[in-house]
TrEMBL record:
Protein name: C1q domain-containing protein
Gene name tied to this protein: LOC127363979
Positions in coiled-coil regions: 62-103
Organismal lineage: Eukaryota, Metazoa, Chordata, Craniata, Vertebrata
Keywords: Coiled coil, Secreted, Signal
Primary site of residence: secreted
Length: 239
């Protein structure tokens, strides 16, 4: 547009010059000059108009190309976003598969007996029963030195504990989780009952590191020989 304005201004300027020159030019010369000048000017204007039209067409094509380029960039960005989302979902799926495989491979089972000979207790205070004879300890979560089970993974666990004892003294065994009583088995003293047997069981949801053990109540006892007083547990399912 600016180029067209400049050319138009030049044409007007030239016309003014020619008009001024015509004042002192004879009529015959003026007619001759006009005939020689105006055809050139008309041809120039035609060429300029054609160039301007081509320029307009090129500008239109350029705008169309820019629009198509922007559309292509937008589609490319959308494709990249979808690709990123797909990669994220793929990683999440892989992590879930790995987690499921890890859960399938995690096996925790233990079973132990008090062992020894004769009775365990009575003691003046509550005492943790140490089941020294380990029958099974897959996962090594039970310690035969402390009598404590420590959960290696979070999940649902099942525990059982049984005892055999003489009837002449009281029996009190309590399953403890992190110093809190969970379930108890108990029997009182009888003069006519020579032996007692009992036990209890429970499902517990544990976090990794939670501790579970069996506590013998103060002034009570159980028998430890012949593997008749036991403590067992296993992982049911990880959570």
């Amino acid at each position: 547009m600016m180029n067209f304005t400049i050319v138009l201004s030049m044409l007007l300027y030239c016309s003014l010059i020619l008009a001024q020159d015509d004042v002192n030019v004879p009529e015959t010369e003026r007619t001759s000059e006009t005939q020689s000048c105006f055809p050139d000017m008309c041809e120039f204007l035609k060429e300029f108009g054609a160039i301007k039209e081509k320029q307009t067409v090129m500008e239109t094509r350029l705008k169309d190309s820019e629009t198509r380029l922007k559309d292509s960039e937008t589609r490319l960005m959308d494709s990249e976003t979808r690709l990123t989302d797909s990669e994220t979902r793929l990683k999440e799926s892989e992590n879930q598969i790995l987690e499921l495989k890890s859960k399938e491979k995690t096996v925790v089972v233990f079973s132990a007996a008090a062992g020894g000979s004769g009775h365990i207790g009575p003691f003046n205070t509550d005492t943790t029963v140490v089941y020294k004879v380990v029958k099974t300890n897959i996962g090594n979560a039970y310690s035969q030195f402390t009598g404590t089970f420590a959960a290696p993974v979070p999940g649902i666990y099942y525990f059982t504990f049984f005892y055999h004892a003489g009837g002449s003294q009281r029996v009190s065994l309590t399953l403890i989780k992190n110093n809190e009583s969970v379930v108890t088995t108990y029997d009182h003293t009888t003069s006519h009952d020579g032996a007692d047997n009992g036990g209890n069981a429970v499902f517990l949801q544990l976090q990794q590191g939670d501790q579970v053990y069996v506590r013998l109540g103060a002034n009570t006892h159980v028998w430890g020989d012949n593997f008749i007083t036991t403590f067992s547990g296993f992982l049911v399912s990880q959570v």
